[in-house]
């Protein structure tokens, strides 16, 4: 969308506020702040000061106060991972997730992950939810059970053929226990691998390690499933090679056996008086996809690059594609007042109905997530680097840029003392600021895409 088209869609009040911001004497500095946040749509506002002194001499090298900033505030990025809340910060989070997953596939010398992990047994596995009732879908051959050949964008996709017979309670309880099912699956997977080669689980830990990175995705029907990179290493993780018996075929067979094992079950106690006399035995669905990951450029669809991009894409999403909202819902009636589609509304109502029966599951607090309360992306300890390390690298790079810009690059970091005092002063934008920040974010995104295309083009000609 062009800036002209964007302006045409704004109301008079927002346009007036944009003119106010653009005409302010510190507009250039405001733009600089927003660019530094990456075009964040909901920046955090801080007030305060900092003083940088030379430790040896006590000389003041730099003094800063937000009194000189637009509105007397410094704006920093909100850091929200959800694209529905802040596309700019979500883009950064997706980039970090991409590098984290890719480092566990191809190695990264900066994080002391050897490139030899490319030759280890590794697969891309998808574990899905079971059926809670037939839904409208687009089968590979023929039409939906309802007799319709649905379009890709048909809002009926994922909704029950018979809503009154759909197990809404089972669906939200599965989402709520999905994290526990994953942990049970991983524990069982270690046992399955050990059983296949005829050793104990204790002996397995002494010769091999299971490493993984995963991301959650909501299907249109509102059920969560997991995509995971699963890899076999030596006992110390990436630094050591796995035993000779480790193979992709063995790992694949063990994954299928673990996902189907009775141990990987969450048993929900019955509540007879509430109309649930049988309770639930929740397990993974029968649709299990396990594919070996191939090296980049070998013509395979499941490549290292594709897997890392796929995981990063879903790391910034939540349940919004099901029709729900991306923030907490105060009460059962709010789902009606929000005007949500029938299917996600019923899932949310099921959370409120079940919460008194299973208070330890905190279903009300996670109703907006259709019961899911786990992490959207996670990894085993030795899979690769961490998001914290990646953020620190970026922070150090920016700090060095700042030191050079201020003429402090002649002073080593350990020779200076920084005194500071900061206070939270709010968040967000005024209407006009929001529209201008969105324009800045689009410009930054365009610049990134142009630079990426240039790098790819350069790589293809060398």
Report on this structure.
The structure is a single chain. With 462 residues, the protein is of the alpha+beta class. The chain has twelve helices and eleven strands. Strand 1 and strand 2 form a beta hairpin. It starts with a helix and ends with a helix. This is Replication initiator protein RepSA. It comes from Streptomyces justiciae. Pfam families: RepSA (PF20199). InterPro entries: RepSA, RepSA_streptomyces.
**What structural category do the secondary elements indicate?**
alpha+beta
Number of helices: 12
Largest sheet: 5 strands, antiparallel
Number of strands: 11
Order of neighbouring strands in the sheet with most strands? 9-4-6-5-10
| Low-pLDDT segments, ≥5 res | none
Radius of gyration: 26 Å
Mean pLDDT, as a whole number?
Answer: 89
C-alpha geometry: globular
**In which range does the helix fraction lie?**
25-40%
Identify the notable features of this structure and list them briefly.
11 strands, 5-stranded antiparallel beta sheet, 2 domains, 4-stranded antiparallel beta sheet, 12 helices, about 450 residues, alpha+beta
Q: Secondary structure elements and their pairing?
A:
Blueprint: H1 3-8, H2 12-23, H3 27-36, E1 44-54, E2 60-65, E3 74-76, H4 87-106, E4 122-127, H5 168-197, H6 201-207, E5 209-218, E6 224-233, H7 248-260, E7 266-268, E8 280-282, E9 288-292, H8 304-315, H9 332-337, H10 342-354, E10 377-379, H11 387-405, E11 416-427, H12 431-461
Antiparallel strand pairs: 1-2, 1-3, 1-11, 4-6, 4-9, 5-6, 5-10, 7-8
